[in-house]
Fold this protein.
Amino acid sequence: MREYADPDALLAWYDTHARNLPWRVGPRDRAAGLWPDPYRVWLSEVMLQQTTVAAVRGYFERFTALWPTVADLSAADDAQVMGEWAGLGYYARARNLLKCARVVVADHAGCFPDNREGLMALPGIGPYTAAAIAAIAFDRPEVVVDGNVERVMARLWDIRTPLPAAKPVIRAAAAWLTPADRSGDYAQAVMDLGATVCTPRAPACGVCPWMAACAGRATGVAADLPAKAPKKAKPLRLGHAYVARRSDGAWLLERRAESGLLGGMLGWPGSDWGMDPVPAPPVAAHWRDIGVEARHTFTHFHLRLRVHVAEVGHEAAPERGDFLPSAAFRPSELPTVMRKVFDLARTAFDTGGQ
Ligand code: SF4
């Protein structure tokens, strides 16, 4: 007869196998009475939304070096924060990050609420993030279900209903296992198990603390779970991007509107994005279509931007955007799609279109 999955067995595994993460207080330090800094937990959880641990580490370390506390972040310059966020994607998160830091400082004396309901009232914190912060930072017995946890639960309980329809039953399974003690460690332990042992393609069942209890392993279907409903094909949108370089080396850039995709980020002026975009050069110039496209995939669509370049003189008077001196321009502050445009344009400038 199969055993039941025991949260204590997982916690014992976590005590020796916990990942070393820069925002984490490991199990030994937690047992010694150390608490995680809610600011660091919150920052890491916001950064980790839709992003991997590997991608987040460097950003997290830079952010916490620049802004060690929520008060520091709340007082930060918006453009600098957006610039530091560039490349992480989902830029609404960065705008909400600032909003949230300012609310925490203004309305909560710089202290994050210590429960899910209070956290959910803050900008940019949805049910998952609130549960994760409440569990990890405040040891609340919240049910925390991310992609890793979904995979572990689907396998452990042999849940074959495809996602997303399986979400409620997966959540119920996760809730059933969540312990009242060491809830924060437990939440992180399931995530670590999913990230390091119960991995998407080849679960290492032989070293899993829940091996004897795992229904998916027993029936031989673990590696195929969770089942997923077929994805809808993403539509394609087209657009034009314009990269102008002035004779003194300054670049013509514009800050995008606060709302909408890439809101508040620095970028190259361009057309609308759709099936039949209307060319919209931002300044009168001899524009050259360099014949290559910057390609990028957003959550809901693929984008192809035709890149146009122009060398302009000092008299150039743009209708949109402003010239940024080359010394003040940091390509790393561009969102990824705009960085791709820049890389293509720079090659075209360097080769003179040969
Ligand atoms: Fe995942 Fe295998 Fe552990 Fe089951 S036994 S939870 S499939 S690693």
Summary: The chain has a mean pLDDT of 94. Residues 322 and 328 are 12 Å apart (CA to CA). Residues 7-224 form a domain with the Endonuclease III; domain 1 fold (CATH 1.10.340.30).
